[in-house]
Amino acid sequence: MVYLNGRWMPIEEASIPVLDRGFIFGDGVYEVVPVYGRKPFRLEGHLARLEASLKAIAIANPHTREEWRALVAEIIARQPFDNQGVYFQVTRGVARRDHAFPRNAKPTVFMMSNPLATPSAETYAKGVACVTAVDNRWLRCDIKSTSLLGNVLMRQFAAEHDALETVMFRDGMLTEASASNVLVVKDGVILSPPQGNLMLPGITLDAAIDLARAAGLPLTMRPISEAEVRGADELWLSSSTKEVLPITRLDGVPVGHGETAGRPGPMFARIRAAFDAAKAAL
Ligand SMILES: Cc1ncc(COP(=O)(O)O)c(C=O)c1O
User: Fold this and answer.
1) Closest C-alpha among 282, 239, 280 to residue 117
2) Which pLDDT does position 111 carry in this prediction?
């Protein structure tokens, strides 16, 4: 069952008017929350980011934090499977087509939940291939907007090159990947670009940072150059559906040095263990 504007229904019955601004302009924001054993992972972080995204584009939040929690709990309960990816989006609503905000539109709220499609054990063991590109998206990548054309083109570029993701650089500095954040390991230190308007404040990234700190792994948030990415000991992707996933080939070149070149590294093994423990403790 999916949720649309206050009602539960089979997805086949869910429909929205063609003048919904989400359809016409991509004028909306969204969230994806991973759920393990029917327990949402880092729900408060996702709800806080939703509130921030709505505020950034001046859509009045249609629900309180308490109501969102209840809706998420209900959609989880309504699915027959335990591990889920709960997707929800809010658009500015239905109005005559004009770029400027309509006066009286009511936000459209849609939620669905699908089986959580995390990568296979083999994928975690081997790592994944990524390609690179110049980040040509807009300058508000911190908003989790449904206007995803830039990301769609980047992800398609990866798919056409037998890669999972496109890692992006803006002015020679790492931003993020098409649908994930990127972490770098060099000389035993985990590096992450500073939060700001050039990348999404990933909830999985937050979790990885907290887990690394708790495990005593050194971590620094600072600008990271393209050369540092290409010379990294390890590269990781993070996202709600990928968790933390090692990149083992970048533009066809094995990531890392020596024995672990082209293979997941020792720091990955530690963050992965911490991540698994955090999921088990939910
Ligand atoms: C562009 C982009 N960056 C980062 C992320 C990771 O965010 P999160 O860990 O909250 O899923 C996503 C997730 O879909 C994304 O689309």
Assistant:
1) 239
2) 98
Sign, Cα dihedral of 268, 274, 277, 278: negative
Residue 4: per-residue pLDDT = 98
CA–centroid distance, residue 74 to ligand 1 (Å): 24
Per-residue pLDDT reduced to its tens digit, 178-213: 999 999 999 999 999 999 999 999 999 999 999 999
**pTM to 2 decimals?**
0.97
Q: Cα torsion for 71, 76, 79, 80, to the nearest 10°?
A: -160
- Rounded distance between C-alpha atoms, residue 275 and residue 282, angstroms: 11
Residue 93 sits in a domain whose CATH number is: 3.30.470.10
Active site residue 30: yes
In total, how many domains does the chain have? 2
Q: Are residues 130 and 94 in the same domain?
A: no
Domain containing 174 — which CATH number?
3.20.10.10
The residues lining ligand 1, judged by C-beta closer than 6 Å to any ligand atom, are 32, 151, 176, 179-181, 200, 202-205, 238-240
**Which residue segment(s) compose the domain that 96 sits in?**
2-115
Query: How far is residue 182's CA from residue 169's CA, in Å, rounded to a whole number?
Result: 11
**The ligand 1 atom nearest the CA atom of 207:** 9
For residue 97, what pLDDT is reported? 98
Active-site residue (options: 124, 164, 174, 176): 176
Judge if 111 and 126 occupy the same domain: no
Token digits of residue 76: 């989880």
Pairing outcome for strands 108-115 and 84-91: antiparallel
| 164 and 251 part of one domain | yes
Of the pLDDT bands very low, low, confident and very high (cuts 50, 70, 90), residue 137 is very high
In the chain, what percentage of residues exceed pLDDT 70?
100
144 is catalytic: yes
Q: Which of 63, 95, 115 is the last residue of a domain?
A: 115
Domain finish residue from 91, 115, 139 = 115
